[in-house]
Specification:
320 residues, alpha+beta, 11-stranded mixed beta sheet, two-stranded antiparallel ribbon, 13 strands, 21% strand
């Protein structure tokens, strides 16, 4: 099992079940201990709900965890009642209280950061675009205005030359396609990119403008292998007014426009693929200002709305 699979299994399945079983069947024997145990567990589950990417266990699973915890608590409390003692009596009682308390505080900071990321930053420039994909159900794998919900924030304050070259992507949105059960592929993480629902989906221009650059010919990678030689893979950069829009990780051989070509909103650009630094098929899209010099994707990043909606990790869109 890869590290990526191991972390997903541990954080999204093992940890929630462990905490729910622990609270339900091994409640603390003091009132303070029980309070911290429950509050810490709820904090962890909320942080996972808000900040984790729910695409393998689907988006509705963390809500199920919270419902299960609430149900067990309401079932157990009237039967067992509250502990008689207020405080733990020895280190065996204090150790789990301190441990889950620290975990709960850390989880609360993650949850707060994720909540803060649900709105654009104050005084930010927001670019409104048409949705670039056809009718279906889509989930936001990465998006929003904080590091807890948007992995692209790594480049907002770049520390290396490579990060500086891609600073324009800092508020990007990554989109995947899901079915009505919330599943985006058949299986846990199949290696064939064609096994993913979004692979091969047509991509359309989200604005009217001109093709600034277009690239094709890079292979669609086996999941979860990535091509770090050119992060955006096959892609199209549009110049819409004084803004640039990147649509990246397109399918090899699918790019249908060339540099200098005028496009209207809805013009076909290519298909969703898995080229470049992409751990699985998805569409990356971001808006930025055009830089005065240097790499084209190094411009000032801008927030984007799709038809007036600011998208954040795990948001779902039903495009009719």
């Amino acid at each position: 099992m890869t590290l990526l699979n191991l972390s997903t299994f541990g954080l999204q399945i093992v940890l929630p079940f462990f905490l729910i079983v622990w609270v339900s069947y091994f409640p603390a024997q003091s009132r303070i201990g029980l309070f911290v145990q429950i509050l810490g567990t709820v904090s962890v589950l909320l942080a996972l709900l808000l900040a984790a990417v729910w695409i393998i266990p689907p988006w509705w699973v963390p809500y199920g965890y919270l419902a299960l915890l609430t149900g067990k608590f309401l079932w157990n409390l009237p039967r067992a009642g509250l502990p008689v003692r207020w405080l733990p009596q020895d280190w065996r009682g204090w150790f789990p209280v301190v441990s889950v308390g620290a975990l709960g505080i850390w989880s609360a900071t993650v949850a707060v950061d994720a909540l803060n990321g649900r709105e654009p930053q104050r005084d930010a420039t927001i670019v409104n675009l048409d949705f670039p994909l056809g009718p279906s159900i889509y989930l936001v794998a990465s998006g929003g205005a904080s590091a807890s919900v948007n992995g692209h924030f790594l480049t907002l304050n770049p520390t290396t030359e490579r990060q500086s070259a891609y600073r324009g992507q800092s508020y990007a949105v990554d989109l995947i396609k899901i079915n009505r059960w919330g599943l985006r592929a058949s299986g846990w993480r199949p290696s064939d990119p064609a096994a993913y629902a979004i692979f091969g989906e047509p991509v359309f221009a989200p604005c009217e403008g001109e093709v600034l650059s277009a690239a094709d010919g890079m292979p669609d990678m086996r999941v979860p292998i990535t091509d770090t030689s050119r992060l955006e893979g096959n892609h199209v950069v549009l110049k819409c007014g004084d803004k640039a829009v990147l649509l990246a990780h397109l399918r090899e051989g699918s790019v249908s426009v060339v540099a200098g070509q005028a496009v209207r909103t809805g013009t076909p650009l290519g298909q969703v693929g898995n080229s470049g630094q992409s751990t699985e098929p998805h569409l990356h899209i971001h808006t930025q200002r055009l830089p005065a010099g240097g790499p084209v994707l190094s411009g000032e990043p801008l927030h984007l709305n799709f038809e007036g909606r600011f998208l954040v990790r795990n948001d779902r869109l039903h495009i009719g």
